[in-house]
Amino acid sequence: MLPLSTKPFLLKHFNPASKIPKYLQIREAVRGLIEKGIVLEQETIPPERDLAEWFGVSRMTVRQAVDELVREGLLEKRLGDGTFVKDQKLSGRMHGAGSFSDEIALSGKRTHSKMLGQVVTRPTEQIAKKLEIEEGETSVIRIERIRYVNEYPISHQISYLPFNLCYPILSADLNVSSLYHHLAQSAGMVMKAGKETIQAIVADDVNAELLQIPVGQPCFLLCRTMYAEQVNRPVEYVETMIRGDKFMFVNQIDGKGIE
Amino acid sequence: MLPLSTKPFLLKHFNPASKIPKYLQIREAVRGLIEKGIVLEQETIPPERDLAEWFGVSRMTVRQAVDELVREGLLEKRLGDGTFVKDQKLSGRMHGAGSFSDEIALSGKRTHSKMLGQVVTRPTEQIAKKLEIEEGETSVIRIERIRYVNEYPISHQISYLPFNLCYPILSADLNVSSLYHHLAQSAGMVMKAGKETIQAIVADDVNAELLQIPVGQPCFLLCRTMYAEQVNRPVEYVETMIRGDKFMFVNQIDGKGIE
DNA sequence: AAGTGGTCTAGACCACCCA
DNA sequence: GGGTGGTCTAGACCACTTC
Fold this sequence. Notes:
Number of strands of chain A: 9
Structural class of chain A: alpha+beta
Strand order of the largest sheet of chain A: 3-4-5-8-7-6
Protein name (chains A, B): GntR family transcriptional regulator
InterPro entries (chains A, B): Bact_HTH_transcr_reg, Chorismate_lyase_/UTRA_dom_sf, Tscrpt_reg_HTH_GntR, UTRA, WH-like_DNA-bd_sf, WH_DNA-bd_sf
Largest interface: A-B, 48 and 50 residues
Oligomer: homodimer
Helix content of chain A: 25-40%
CATH class of the largest domain in chain A: Alpha Beta
CATH architecture of the largest domain in chain A: 3-Layer(aba) Sandwich
Order of helices and strands of chain A: HHHHEEEHEEHHEHEEE
Largest sheet of chain A: 6 strands, antiparallel
Distance between the termini of chain A: 61 Å
Keywords (chains A, B): DNA-binding, Transcription, Transcription regulation
Strand content of chain A: 25-35%
Shape of chain A: elongated
Domain HTH gntR-type (chains A, B): 20-88
Organism (chains A, B): Brevibacillus fluminis
């Protein structure tokens, strides 16, 4: 039997006269049920028919609310059984072979970084999604740097890391040593795998000034999400703008798979 | 007005008597509309009320189907306006140890090539060097093509092949089938390995016209040298200009080699 | 004004799970 | 068998965009 407190709690967060759509109010009310611990992990929320009756709405409206929480990964429906609160764990299997990085092909050159800013902030919706952070759940560390090769700027990089996983790096001096190195040393995070996309874009005015190039000059935009060994979720999302006039990617093609 | 072909196409992929839920059939039918290029990017799919009438289902059922495609990022709804096919960047893998390519990850898209020219000519010094041809020793085949995805041009490609190794392909129709396929069939050349570089540049006037983009738009320039199993020298050098607004590279990062 | 997607109803029957 | 979620109907009114 469900605790008696669920129904009063839900109704307290619902106002049918409000301009806010009912399904959104219901979604947030049910979310509160979980966040406040009124319904614990592995337990069920009330049946859809009960919710519909309590709120005085149709079952379809309840489903619209609950299904969104299911898609967010907060709830799990089991056919014929009920709707359960999930353990807070997100899946993220990584596979595929191959490696690569933006630091390759710079061998023999002198490199350094300049820190532009390192702040703890609230993630935007996009960043929260990339890091698989529940919206508003927590803070992220935002690190903005310029990387130099032989004294000229080569890339502008903005990294985002979940605060609660990576806060020890806040004490690091990233001017002289690498982010990944410090993540391993101070936060115990060793990067394991990830995914990146590479796009061709032109420099906007901000990047043009930072990279000392004209606006409109071609650049690479590299967006990478990295996973650490220790945790089953992303620990870094980084966007890197790289000068197209000073950098190229090199790829060795090997054997099979060629039509 | 929508092409007449949408309705017949959709109904062909729908069977109300099937045990498969209607909304799933509708979802896949609409997906087919996009993948087959019957509805192109930036265009709208038919209104929900039309779809409901055509399929003989209620509008809620149509919405259940369409909303899933919206969540997948394939469609975008604009209130009061319509449901639009999103402008998606195509992607190509970039395995460090394996295939590459601009031809993968185009699954479900209609692709074809247009031959601009196929001539036997004397190699320039640069091309001769790439193909490891003694200067003036022999001739090369120069093949220039535009590649299309869903009717819009995606890349402009110029391939160079040593004449004495590859002349059988001169009889091939490269409009319909791949260069590598024909090299294998008619010249007995199977591509084995190679090396490619990827640069970010902007379109010049020639490429802008061929790719139907403005001059100055960002592009990738991919330069690749390929070796065949049978011979110990390059058999193809190809330069490919790829539209940056329609294409991105995707790379899976795996384990080691991370600084 | 006409057409679009957004929200919502009050039911219905089904397949599935558990006691 | 009784309760659960899965699918589906045939409407309705609203808010928004476009013309």
